[in-house]
Amino acid sequence: MYKAFTASELKGHFNLPPDYKIKGYISYGAYDNEKHFNNIKKVLKELKLKYTSRNLGKVYGFLSHILEIKIKGNIYWFSVNYGSARLSEYLHLACLFGSKKNIHIGSFGGLYPEMDSLELLLPTWSFSQETSALSYNREAKDFKHYPDKNLFNLIKSKIPKQYKIWEGPIITNQAMLGETLEDVKKWSEDGYYGVEMETATVFAVSAHFKMPSASVLYNTDNLIKGQTVGDQTHTQQKMQREEVKKDVYKIALEIVLNNS
């Protein structure tokens, strides 16, 4: 069925040339395409990188959440996805089209009592029973999905020294409005550091294709301490969050653009 489609067949379906290749992929967990497309363009300019870009939705509508970035003749994908259904398919395509590194960035809800808002987390694994992950990691009877160790360590080495870095497991749950206080307490008691919507899928799909992946996330709503998106403390941290986002973009770009 669909999983058997070849790279050549899929390029034809999505109106891409037969020799189309990408070198790396960055996914961002969010819903606002244009905001984050503009953010990464600003960072590229700040880094003084010469690039061209286009929304791939102009080539084929389904690809509208992907910003294609060309630098020194190489193509990179940056996509914005809220949850994992479409993300799993973008990752599938990216791996078939040659991506060498897949990095996921974004935010999470904090579950670890000692962690503060805006601190960074490197997920050591992600628990997920979502089919967007399990369809690519059918042997994961414990529902754990892992990053590539070398890429994990490389990201860790690139994080600016002013950040507190946490390492630990997270849970990937796509039903944000279905989360209860009891869920948050239980996840925290079970040792999870955070909850978000995409990381397990990035790990599972990438590993299926034997492509390295890893994730770096920032704590946006510190759930275990009662903070939620849009409350007073969260709103007051808006400017700080934008600075953290910028640094996370830079980390991902530095690694994806590196030839090693």
Report on this model:
This protein is α/β, with parallel strands linked by helices and 260 residues long. Helix 2 packs across helix 9 and helix 3 (85-96) packs parallel to helix 7. It has one domain: 3-Layer(aba) Sandwich (Rossmann fold). The protein has nine helices and ten strands. Helices cover 35% and strands 24% of the residues. 42% of the residues are buried. The longest helix has 20 residues, at 238-257. A five-stranded mixed beta barrel has the order 5-9-8-6-10. The chain has helices spanning 7-13, 33-46, 85-96, 131-134, 149-158, 181-189, 199-208, 232-236, 238-257, and strands spanning 24-29, 52-55, 66-71, 74-81, 102-110, 120-127, 144-145, 165-172, 194-196, 213-221. A hairpin with a 2-residue loop joins strand 3 and strand 4. Residues 90-255 form the Nucleoside phosphorylase domain. Pfam families: PNP_UDP_1. One of its GO terms (molecular function) is catalytic activity.
